[in-house]
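Complex 273.
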Amino acid sequence: MEHTVRIEESLCIGCGACVADCPASNIELAGEPRAAKVFDPENCLFCGHCEAICPAGAVTLTGFEEVPAEIPEEVNGAVRLDPDTLLDAIRTRRSIRHFKDEPVPQEIIDKIIEAGRLTQTAKNSQRQSYAVLREHLAEAEKIGVEGLRAAVAAEAAKAAAAGKDPAAVSPLGRTQITDDFLFFGAPLAIVVLSPSKTDGCLAAENMALMAEACGLGVLFSGFFTDVANAAPALREMLGIDETRQAVATLVLGRPDIRYRRTVRREPARVTWL
Ligand SMILES: Cc1cc2nc3c(=O)[nH]c(=O)nc-3n(C[C@H](O)[C@H](O)[C@H](O)COP(=O)(O)O)c2cc1C
Ligand code: SF4
Ligand code: SF4
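Predicted structure with iron/sulfur cluster bound:
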């Protein structure tokens, strides 16, 4: 849908807050009395900072499906998570590969997708989309497992022809690719698709945090993401084309395992400049 920035001149008090904050330098104060005007509607990010900052409620971005509150509620500063709780959540989460045989309720799936939708994107492009695998989960896993086995066999044949140990040349050389190797019996997987790896992965990490906050276990399946981009049948099923790729796959479900302690990580490599 087309967006525009609508500035209601009769409400504008000419404070200049939107001018100072616009990241695209796209607003000026003009006329008498001074009122805000958008220079170039084509080159707008539609980031909404002008709407968010205006003390007079004079700015509205149009064209979004999301209905604005009738009386826009002012947010009283950013919502703050307790920093220590947040760090504990990041520290104690683990990749989950054991899931209960329970479906994930629709309202939780919706919340996870909402966390992706609300994530920031470069130039506010918001081009990520989501393929939710439920009914077709088993079919997708079967195609993916077959694709991986074929890729490993091809690598092994190449290695053997070159006189090398086939098991040593591939990261999967010594791994048994079981039938549940990609989704580990989980009831749900969400593939994040985007033209931009960075945008898609930022959304995916927020989605993972939301899923964990809702009590789910999460595994990022890099193997599924790779095979989804490579296998024609998966590309078709997920809607991957030259405009967008799979950037992350969240495997989700109620965890059927409890980790008793956290694990150590390498120290941060930081250059202080
Ligand atoms: C981008 C990404 C892709 C991953 N892909 C897989 C995968 O395909 N299969 C798997 O079993 N684990 C996968 N993992 C899990 C990692 O192995 C795991 O995060 C790492 O060993 C650390 O363990 P922890 O997440 O429990 O702290 C992936 C993790 C990330 C971040
Ligand atoms: S939406 Fe963002 S880029 Fe566009 S005029 Fe407002 S502040 Fe500037
Ligand atoms: S922030 Fe609002 S009141 Fe201030 S100049 Fe911009 S539109 Fe006018």
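The CA atoms of residues 51 and 124 lie 15 Å apart.
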